[in-house]
From TrEMBL, chain A:
Keywords: Membrane, Transmembrane, Transmembrane helix. It comes from the Bacteria. The chain crosses the membrane at residues 21-43, 63-86, 106-135, 155-173, 180-204, 258-278, 298-319, 331-354, 366-383. This is Uncharacterized protein. Residues 675-698 are annotated as: Disordered. Signal peptide: none annotated.
UniProtKB/TrEMBL annotation, chain B:
GO terms for molecular function: ATP binding; ATP hydrolysis activity. SMART domains: AAA. This is ABC transporter ATP-binding protein. It comes from the Bacteria. It holds the Pfam family ABC_tran. Coiled coil: none annotated.
Length: 724, 298
């Protein structure tokens, strides 16, 4: 007699697949649309040979960005299907009456779920491979890696969904818990920061990403990506036989692909945990919000904590924020708001667990604990009991330091940049010591934008003085894998900047030091791998080959060394009058992906005086003299007093904007925007019809000349005279 | 043999079963009776392996039921609220059960088609309650079980079909020695088919005996006392007494002979012992456990 008591039951497996065929059938249909769309597009746009590497790149792109998002949704649907019997007393009774052990049910249902997940991917994958084969792009390694990746991610997400299925006792709670677990780390991070930044000086990031790996879909999408390498090569046109230079894809790898294996292993572990929960699961828990006894207090107090922070913050914003003095929360109102929010979460959870609203008499002790917890948490943060505000990591505990200041990122490595790191720590300590001053001068409501330059009240002693507010962020990556991140809005004045020992002085000395200028462009900085470079001019641009990029980087470094580029003027940060409409961008792969990003882009605005860079650009025939027009010359109205009025007058007179005019004639009409007034425009066939009533008059010319004298200012006119 | 010994089961602090003990001999038809909430369905869910007891033992044929697939293959159960897949017809459910029960007899299934004249392709959800019960019996009996565990089994069936179903089950008991445990509130029907009865209340089995023993343990007497004796003597152990004219109807916990002998001491004009129905036994037994028909005037 055949055994029917094994760990797998074919009848149940077939029943699951036949019962839920609309789910995987619809998913397969949806998936099949992608290769079909690709086929139609290829046919429509003409037969094109795909290189296998392009195919691999396409596979990896889908694996990196598409599969996690699809899997997270589809896995919960499959899990809801196969475990739905657990949530109904009748169905769980029938299934547990059957002559099969729970491991048999578990294994069979897990295999059913995974099969339901695999079918649509298999259908889509096979069709995709057929389409790519048809166009000559079959790439077995890419297919293999993609298949393994899809299997790994499917296993993880289904494992997580199954784990959730055995914690809850209600089918509606399953997607809720699954969604929460997928994003709980991000949500917690966000909420803790939301509260902490209202209490702690320097804590002002809304999201740290410290435990992002606990939010799988976010982490996978962030970390895994196709890593493509292009090289400039001469290629021959297949049809015309002509040779031309182009960027050619030379290799494609899956960046951080091992993470999928790690998550797959976690998925298998979660399945193991789910099995342990199933062994102990009580059938009578069908219909309960939480089926596992020890999870009930976790659910109750978890809801209370989240509601306290989120609801408390919301209530505070509604009821008290307008009375708040300064950037930081008032302690007592915040405690009361958090208690109110926490009470909502606590009692809502208690009612769900008890399935009755009559919980107030029996749960008041727990509510008291929630209230005390809210008060303790707010008090601890307000009075910095944990030393968060004062914390500066010791140099030997740090493995990387990231400083963001003056619009640029700097990465400092212990051993190589010890002197700079010590300067950063000194600056940090000085900022902390000047906490009261900073909070008074730069209270920060988000009113001042970064680099905002404001004039202060002039006095006899302080004639023409300026101030600015800038944002500095210091991040220490610790050897333990944790990070300490602080951000400050700093009030800077030229007086203080000239005075040794102030944070203004230390910041300026640090950022404008030759070492940091080189750091800014990652010049000869080990570990930073340039992945792409390109340039943009007013008339176009293009991708740079690695040789071109290297030459340009060297040229910028020389300009930095000569002082022709990279000296940051804190009080004229927005002054781009001397810039050309010409930018070079270098994209680097960061040495360690510890800052929630893998790539970093450096943008160089080429300006007047960068002789080495301009020479290199010309030598490489990337620009001509026609490109060397400064913003002041090209957009004079932006830098002159009353310039925008002139802009409007110009438009009325010439029926086109000054930009259009300049683009067409490469100059402005005489008398406009500082040109000589006697050089009146000459009508040509191509020149626009000139409205006589609005032709440049002497008075207009005088105004323009006047502007020309003043021209060159940037922003508020009071700053003009102080520009060095 | 079905043995439930000292089983305790609590739900959030509420003891649904409190030291419950029953014993069903092999081949017996055991009626489990009790008021609503007594714990009958809970004990059945233990017998079918759905619930796991907090303490005590639940055994069939000397083996623990919990997670015993081989044993469960010999058990067919029809709960009060039988579950079927939403779009499944009887044929679908037959194939499903056939994949689990090694003794499932297709031959018997075919034969029973003549008894249960149901459309096998029609979704079960479209059947009436009685037809769904028929479908459940059809499949359960086709599984050729050694143990049939039934919770309110004939509820919803018409009288003819009830008789038909009982006839089929009795046939299995007689021919294959099937042990049947049935929970029902229809005591008149149980009286016709059961040979053993257990009465439950508040999660506890108050008593269990063979039906004959049960009927021998309690007696109903109609008595007419001599003139001048209006009331029932206080020293008599009477469970319940009522009076109509001069005729007293007494329920006493003893056999008919002993009760008659004790009444004879009062020289009654008439003594007549009448056997109690199961329903009466149920009512008077539970009356002692504070469960009786209350004279409530609305």
């Amino acid at each position: 007699m055949r055994s029917k008591t094994s760990c797998f039951n074919g009848t149940l497996f077939r029943k699951n697949l036949s019962r839920y065929w609309p789910l995987w059938g619809l998913a397969s249909f949806g998936g099949a649309m992608f290769p079909l769309a690709m086929l139609l597009e290829l046919l429509h746009n003409g037969f094109r040979f795909w290189s296998p590497l392009e195919t691999r790149q396409a596979y990896y792109t889908v694996l990196s960005y598409g599969v996690p998002v699809i899997s997270i949704v589809y896995a919960i649907l499959c899990a809801m299907a196969v475990w739905s019997y657990l949530y109904n007393a009748r169905s769980v009774g029938m299934m547990h009456t059957l002559p099969i052990r729970r491991e048999g049910l578990f294994v069979t249902n897990v295999l059913s779920g995974l099969t339901m997940m695999a079918i649509p991917y298999a259908v889509t994958g096979v069709l995709l491979v057929l389409v790519t084969m048809l166009f000559g792009g079959f790439e077995p390694m890419g297919v293999l890696v993609t298949v393994l990746g899809v299997m790994g991610e499917s296993l993880f997400f289904f494992g997580l969904a199954t784990f959730c299925a055995f914690i809850v006792g209600n089918v509606f709670m399953l997607p809720a818990l699954y969604g929460l677990l997928n994003f709980i780390a991000v949500l917690t991070d966000f909420m803790v920061n939301l509260l902490a930044q209202g209490f702690c000086f320097g804590l002002n990031s809304s999201y740290s990403g410290t435990v992002e790996w606990l939010s799988p879909v976010v982490y996978l999408v962030q970390k895994i990506s196709p890593n493509s390498t292009y090289e400039t090569q001469w290629v021959t046109d297949r049809l015309g036989g002509q040779r031309y230079e182009t960027s050619v894809l030379t290799s494609v790898t899956l960046e951080n692909g091992w993470l999928i294996a790690a998550y797959a292993a976690a998925g298998a572990a979660l399945l193991g945990l789910a099995w342990l929960l199933y062994r102990r699961r009580r059938s009578e828990s069908a219909g309960d919000v939480v089926a596992v006894g020890w999870m009930k207090p976790v659910f109750r107090y978890g809801c209370a904590v989240y509601a306290a922070i989120l609801g408390g913050r919301l209530l505070y914003a509604l009821l008290w924020e307008s009375f708040q003095n300064g950037q930081y929360f008032a302690l007592l109102p915040m405690i009361l708001c958090m208690i109110a929010g926490g009470a909502v979460g606590y009692y809502a959870a208690s009612m769900l667990l008890a399935k009755t609203p009559r919980v107030f008499k029996t749960t008041w002790k727990g509510m008291l604990a929630v209230a005390l917890g809210c008060a303790a948490l707010c008090g601890a943060m307000k009075y910095d009991l944990f030393g968060v505000t004062r914390r500066i990591p010791a140099p030997d505990s740090v493995k990387l330091v990231n400083v963001y200041a003056a619009g640029s990122n700097y990465y400092l490595t212990p051993g190589k940049d010890d002197v700079l790191i010590e300067k950063v720590r000194t600056l940090h300590q000085t900022i902390i010591d000047d906490k009261d001053y900073i909070q008074k001068e730069a209270p920060g409501y988000g009113y001042y934008s970064d680099g905002y330059t404001a004039s202060v009240e002039e006095s006899a002693e302080d004639s023409g003085a300026q101030s600015t507010i800038t944002h500095v962020r210091i991040t220490y990556m610790l050897n333990s894998g944790l990070k300490v991140e602080r951000g400050y809005r700093l009030y800077l004045t030229p007086d203080r900047m000239a005075r040794e020992g102030t944070y203004d002085y230390l910041l300026d000395q640090l950022i404008n030091s030759p070492e940091m200028r080189q750091k800014r462009i990652r010049w000869r900085d080990e570990g930073f791998q340039m992945t792409e470079a390109w340039f943009e001019t007013w008339s176009g641009g293009g991708t740079l080959g690695s040789r071109e990029a290297g030459l340009l980087l060297d040229a910028v470094a020389k300009d930095a060394e000569n002082g022709d580029w990279g000296v940051y003027n804190w009080f004229l940060a927005d002054n781009d009058a001397d810039n050309y409409d010409l930018r070079i961008q270098f994209e680097y792969k960061l040495p360690e992906s510890q800052f929630n990003r893998i790539h970093d882009t450096i943008r160089i605005n080429v300006k007047e005086g960068m002789t080495e860079t301009i020479r290199a650009l010309k030598d490489l025939k990337l620009i001509t003299d026609a490109d060397l027009v400064t913003n002041r010359e090209r957009y004079p109205w932006q830098y002159a007093q009353g310039g925008w009025d002139q802009y409007d007058q110009f438009y009325k007179q010439f029926h086109m904007s000054p930009e259009e005019y300049y683009e067409r004639y490469s100059e402005y009409p005489a008398g406009w925007f500082g040109t000589e007034s006697d050089e009146l425009p000459t009508e040509t066939e191509n020149a626009p019809a000139v409205d006589d009533s609005h032709s440049p008059s002497m008075s207009a010319g005088a105004e323009a000349a006047g502007l020309g004298i003043i021209g060159g200012a940037d922003g508020p006119t009071v700053m003009v005279t102080t520009v060095a | 043999m079905i043995e439930v010994k000292n089983v305790v089961k609590t739900f959030d602090g509420f003891a649904a079963l409190n030291d419950a003990t029953i014993s069903v001999p092999t081949g017996a038809v055991y009626g489990l009776v009790g008021p609503n909430g007594a714990g009958k369905s809970t004990i059945i869910r233990h017998l079918t392996g759905i619930f796991r007891q907090d303490s005590g033992t639940v055994r069939l044929g000397g083996e623990d039921v919990w997670e015993n697939a081989a044993l469960k293959a010999k058990i067919a159960a029809i709960p009060d609220d039988w579950y079927y897949f939403n779009s499944a017809g009887i044929g679908d459910m037959m194939r499903f059960y056939k994949g689990f029960y090694p003794n499932f007899s297709t031959e018997r299934y075919e034969k029973l088609r003549e008894v249960f004249e149901l459309d096998e392709k029609r979704p079960i959800r479209r059947f009436s309650k009685g037809m769904q019960k028929q479908a459940a019996f059809w499949l359960a009996l086709s599984a050729m079980p050694d143990y049939l565990i039934l919770d309110e089994p004939v509820d919803g069936l018409d009288p003819v079909m009830r008789r038909q179903v009982w006839s089929l089950m009795m046939g299995d008991v007689a021919e294959r020695g099937t042990t049947v445990l049935v929970s029902s509130h229809n005591l008149r029907e149980l009286e016709d088919v059961c040979d053993h009865v257990g009465i439950m209340d508040h999660g506890h089995v108050l008593l269990e005996r063979s039906l004959a023993q049960l009927q021998d343990n309690m007696v109903k007497l109609q008595v007419v006392f001599p003139d001048g004796m209006e009331d029932v003597p206080a020293e008599l152990p009477v469970l319940h007494a009522s009076k109509l004219g001069r005729v007293h109807t007494l329920i006493m916990r003893m056999n008919a002979q002993e009760a008659t002998e004790r009444l004879m001491a009062y020289s009654p004009l008439l003594v007549d012992a009448i056997p109690l129905t199961l329903e009466e036994i149920f009512i008077y037994e539970l009356g002692g456990a504070d469960y009786a028909v209350k004279d409530i005037v609305l």
